[in-house]
Design a protein that fits this description.
The structure is a homodimer of 214-residue chains.
Chain A (H helix, E strand, L loop, with lengths): L2 E5 L10 H10 L4 E4 L6 H15 L6 E4 L2 H7 L3 E4 L6 H8 L4 E6 L2 H7 L6 E4 L16 H11 L4 E4 L7 H7 L3 E4 L1 H4 L4 H22 L2
């Protein structure tokens, strides 16, 4: 889960099709795509997931479905991202199998402690900063929150919430392995350029961090 | 799928808990319960389904989940009801297995024809009459629609939409095997009495119909 991670938001993509934004993000270096649809009926969600899966295939980038195990099963997605209000982890693992990538959002310290005993593939540290694209969370972790989770958790960390070219270096240096963005790519005037810039900063920061820690 | 079939609507239950309305419907003769939640996050939907399943167990009445295969799998429900905008039938069958009850809503004639080749357990004829509890449908089948479907389809028919004590006899005589209601029980001042009355009319009509057809 190292690198740039795109979480989709159709409503944020403006007049461009989501499909095109995803393709440009992939060309720009995005390593993982999470399809997030909170208001789409099941059938069109499945159809969209099938389209996005086909776009991802030549890049060998995994498709993660937000919340909906049914959609993940129906399209044969690579994984599922669950929040604290979604499917319990053990049920998701039972149906998706040991190879699936399962990510879990942590929104408070008790979530981090509970996740320690689960074989999740990464923790979504959510939100790092307050953001208008996700309003159902309480508080924000901040960079100190990432550091605190990093010093405790055995899982890779994907930071999300209010991240952009101006602060992703700090998030990586604080301990984030992956950087998830929504509007920094979906709402960018040029999603390809935005992804390239973010990817470059994240890779440099990861190298820098790894050098410092040796 | 013969008899009285309850489709839940929490918002319709007023100050009474859904759990209590379901229990009273079961005591009143309800033969099947479909849990329908279009706006509940996954985790509370699963928790509600687990509660309702426990209430149904002593009555040996099947629990059908509306739309959400993930919830059905997580709670081990007896079946799934899918609409034309939900999970494709073949995917639902693949994950739920041959023993599960899978119902499919038909909203236009093409749906009825397509369903003929599917091993669905019943067709939901939806809506029979216009109703305020479900607004995403086009047109209404009417009693003539039930007759037309009955003369063509090989599947049991569950009629839904605007059915109440005043018209369920006609729906059964037109060919409905099951009668699904939402507000006729959920919004009734006495859900137990409402269920008893509906159950009595439906059973008499089924006997009457079967006698006439011999």
């Amino acid at each position: 889960m190292n690198g740039l991670y795109l979480v989709t938001d159709r409503n944020c993509c403006g007049p461009r099709l989501l499909d095109r934004v995803v393709l440009e993000a992939l060309k720009g270096g995005c390593m993982c795509v999470q399809l997030r649809e909170k208001n789409l009926p099941t059938r069109p969600f499945i159809e969209e997931a099938q389209r996005i899966k086909a776009i991802l295939a030549p890049f060998r980038v995994p498709l993660i479905i937000n919340d909906r195990l049914d959609v993940a099963l129906a399209v044969g997605a690579d994984g599922l991202h669950i929040g604290q209000d979604d499917m319990p982890y053990t049920e998701a693992r039972k149906w998706l199998g040991p190879e699936a990538i399962i990510g879990l959002s942590v929104e408070k310290w008790a979530d981090v402690e509970q996740a320690q005993d689960l074989d999740v593939d990464y923790l979504g540290v959510s939100p790092v900063f307050q953001t208008p694209t996700k309003t159902d969370t309480t508080g924000a972790w901040g960079l100190d929150g990432i550091k605190k989770i990093r010093s405790f958790s055995r899982h890779p960390l994907v930071a999300i919430g209010g991240l952009n070219a101006g602060n992703v270096k700090d998030a990586v240096m604080a301990g984030a392995d992956g950087i998830a963005v929504v509007s920094a790519i979906c709402a960018a005037s040029d999603p390809y350029q935005a992804a390239c810039e973010l990817d470059s900063i994240i890779r440099d920061a990861l190298k820098n961090r790894n050098t410092l820690s040796q």
